[in-house]
Structure formats: C-alpha cells, structure tokens
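User: My instructor asked us to take a sequence, write out its structure as tokens, and then describe one feature of it. I'm not sure where to start. Here is the sequence I was given:
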Amino acid sequence: MVMSPYIFAFISVALASLDEIIFKYAVDSKAKPYPILAFYCLVATALMAPFVGLSAFRGINGYTIGCIALSAVLWFIGDLYGTKAYEYLDASVCEVVGSSKLVLIGIAGILIFNDSLDRNAILGMCLIVLGVFYQSLGRKFTINRGIAYMGVYVVFVASALILDKYLSGFASEDSIVFICFLFSTVLYFAVGRVTISEIRSSIKLTKNYIVFAPILGIMSYYSLIKAFQGGGFASVSAVQQVQITFILALEIILLKAVNDLPRKAFSSIVCLIGAIAACGVL
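Assistant: Let's start with the prediction itself. The structure tokens for your sequence are:
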C-alpha cells in the first residue's frame, strides 16, 4: 500500500509542531539559539550516521552535494532567525507570520515546477496574507523585532524548501536529510563558535526537553521530503499550514500561553482556511 504524499505532509506537521514548542520552551528558559541549534543538528547527524553515513554520498555528484550544502546554509540562516523570534513572539504568532512563505512557494511552484494556480489557490494565499497582516500589526499597528526576524525566516526557509523540492527530483531522502544536517552542524559550530559547556548549560535550562527535538526533527524532515517526492510543491506546502492550528493548541495546553487568545485564534483560523483553500479542498 502506497501512502499518499499528503499523509506524509500531515505526519511532518505533527512532528514539527512538537519540535517548535520545544524550541519555544528552550528560548523562554533563556537558552541561547546557537547552542540549542548546534546540539539539535549534531545529535540528528549522530543518530542518522549508523544508518546512512557514507552511503548518503554514494552515487551523487558534486553538483548535488553543492545544492544540499546551499540548502543547509538557507536552513541555517532561516532557523537561526526563526528561533531568535521566539524571544519576542509566542510560538503561535511565529507560525502565523511564517505561513506567509506559502505565497513565495506558490509563485515558485508556478515558475519553477509548473504547478497550476487556480482561483482556490489565489483565494487561499490572500487569506493567509490577511491572517498574517492582522496578527503581525496588532492593536498598536507596530512591527517589532520578532516580526522582522520572522520576515528573514520566511525568505530563507521558503528558499530552502524550493531547493529541497528541486533536490527531491533526483536525490534520495537519505542523502538530502543527512548531508543537510551534517553541513548545518558544521555551520553552527563554526559560525556560532559553540562550546560543549554552552550546550550542556542550554540542555539543563530546558530541563532536558531539548533532547527530544533532534528525533522529532529527523522524522519530520524525512516525512516532508517523502511528501515532496510524490505531491505537488504548492499543495504539500499548503497542507503544512495546518501546523498553525497544531501550534496554537499545543501552546495553550503545554505552555499555558493564553494571552491575546482571540487575536491568535482568529488569525490561525483565517490562515488555516487559506491553506485548505490553496489545497483545492474548498
């Protein structure tokens, strides 16, 4: 029995939602972004090494490795700024603003991957932009540093997803996921100059919850690549916006974050309807 690519997309969403909540908790616990992200990528790489290892490089050329390395750089920058945004915004707000990357992805789907864009998709993207606009500006109509950080996240993560979709056409999920995590690990330690003592301190601050993040991250990334291999780029990315609702629910249940709940709920619902419309369901 062959699983639908959209099932893989939903699995990716569920796992990524838990991952995001863990990172939000880590930042709220005063853990610094560089050490927790370095730990995340290091453990993910170590967990995959016995099963993938050198076989990830077998049968792929320098061009493919270069594309995966570029993807790692894009993820590195996007995830770093996305994590920094948690210092200023709740996880659900970050997710709503982050959903605007679907607009960039939709355009790329048409121009690069020959995806079709019907009225439902256009309506969906407009609703997502509306939801993001409403949540981002807030009652005082100001854009804070957290929103600016999420803007950087949107551009770089959308670019990384576009490149990953391109790579999924000729590289295996093992190669993409393992090499991307490997290069990301090198980047975090080299650019952030992270030390083992900093990682240990960060783990303690999160009450060891951060140790679950790499496992969730691996499974989520694998599921996403599998979804890309079998489904339309814009459609799979639209399904992923269901994460908005997952994040809001988990934030309320696990982090007890109920401030400005009506605004969050309204923005999340508008973005969710937009994502469903973009999938062609409405």
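For the description part of your assignment, you could build on this observation: The CA atoms of residues 88 and 144 lie 8 Å apart. Try explaining in your own words what that tells you about the chain.
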